[in-house]
């Protein structure tokens, strides 16, 4: 599922990874983006797939655990 955000794009992750639209506070831009995604199922699927991969690559339990192990290894 593509990401649509009215006000927030943490560290430009949405824009940099092309996983949706951050509307920078513009309700008009958010509505336009949602309508565009509604009308174009192929675009919606492509962006959604990139978003899914991003979440898996950055936030999966395995990736997070590996980061914790690396951090703890540095402290020991």
Task: Outline the fold blueprint.
Elements: E1 3-5, H1 13-16, E2 20-22, H2 27-39, H3 41-59, H4 61-75
Parallel strand pairs: 1-2
Helix pairs in contact: 3-4
Output the helix-strand order.
EHEHHH
Secondary structure class reads mainly alpha
Radius of gyration: 16 Å
**Count of β-strands:** 2
Mean pLDDT over the full residue set: 94
Shape: elongated
Strand order of the largest sheet: 1-2
Task: Please give the count of helices.
Answer: 4
Beta-strand fraction estimate: 5-15%
Q: Classify the oligomer.
A: single chain
Poorly predicted regions are none
Terminus-to-terminus distance: 40 Å
Tell me the helix content: 55-70%
The biggest beta sheet, please? Answer: 2 strands, parallel
Describe what is shown at a glance.
This protein is mainly alpha-helical and 76 residues long. It contains four helices and two strands, in the order βαβααα.
Main traits of this protein?
mainly alpha, elongated, single chain
């Amino acid at each position: 599922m593509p990401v649509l955000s009215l006000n927030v794009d943490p560290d430009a992750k949405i824009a940099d990874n092309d996983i949706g639209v951050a509307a920078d506070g513009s309700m008009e831009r958010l509505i336009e983006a949602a309508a565009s995604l509604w009308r174009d199922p192929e675009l919606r699927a492509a962006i959604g797939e990139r978003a899914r991969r991003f979440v898996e690559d950055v936030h999966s339990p395995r990736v997070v655990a590996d980061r914790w192990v690396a951090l703890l290894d540095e402290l020991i």
